[in-house]
Structure formats: C-alpha cells, structure tokens
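Lab notes, practical 5.
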Amino acid sequence: MTSAVTLFSTKGYSATSIQDIVSHSGFSVGTVYNYFNNKEELLTSLIVEGWDEFFLSIKEGLEKSSSEKAFDFFYNILFDTVVENIDLASLLINEPLLYPKLEKIANDLFTFIVKNPSILPENMNKAVNFQYDKSIFYAAAMGTIQTIKLSKQGYIDVDVNKLKSDIQNLFLKFDL
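Output from the prediction step:
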C-alpha cells in the first residue's frame, strides 16, 4: 500500500499500473490481487482506511482532552497527520477520481465540527456564527497540502513547523 501511495502521488493514478506497484513493492502480482481486485479498489482502500484511522484518533483524543485544549489537540493531529501522510493527502486533492471521497471526508469533518463547536476557538465560532464554509476549507486545505509537499520535496523554502505554528496562530487570533 505504501508503494501504491508513493507511485500514485508521483506518477498519477492513471499512469501507475499494478505492475509498477508490484515492481516497486517487491511483492508478486498474485499477492496484490489476493487483497485487491483491481487498481481502483486499492486506491479506495488506501483512502478509506487512512481516513477511518485518522477520524477515530481524533474522536478518541478529543474525548480525553479538556475543552480548552480541544482545538490544540484537533489542529495538531490534523496537521501532523497531513505532514506524515503528505503523499496520500496530496493524492486525495490531486486525483479527480477521488473527489467524491474528498467531498465525503469534508462533510464528515464539517459535521463533526458543527456537532462539537468547542473544537474551534470561541472567536472563530463567533466570527463565522457556526456557519462553516466548505470553499474556504478546500482552499486552505489544498494550499496547505501543496505547500507542505513542495517544501518536503525541496522545491520551495518553507519551514513546515513554522507554517504549522503560523496557521494555528491565525486561528487563535482570528477576528472580524
């Protein structure tokens, strides 16, 4: 699965064959087809499994966090997970086949935030009056993911840790 993510994110889904994944991973074709019927099933499994694990860790962590620390926990796990899984995150926003999955993830996240408004700082909730705009979420998420990816690949000079801190401060200081 790691080989599939790497190849899908660098070559693109369409340009990556099962044979490419087999060659990169060192497994046999039979092993891959033992787990997945086709390339699309592999891709879907990557996204669904990754999202389910991430969302479960958010829910469990927030249950243990105090309300004052909920935003810090939520933001840190969200940002750190994207950094650790930048190829998968990049694939999610760059592969048109995955846009319906991206829409589901965004809806899951928005529903969760609306049901748990204490996740965001109080100033954010007052400013947006609990009306979260998906277009802003998409623009911010896509820009952040691309910035992290380009930085990790050495194409731009951005300190990912400083980016994380600066975005967090924007949320905390947000005011209309």
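Observations recorded by the TA: The radius of gyration is 18 Å. The chain has a mean pLDDT of 82.
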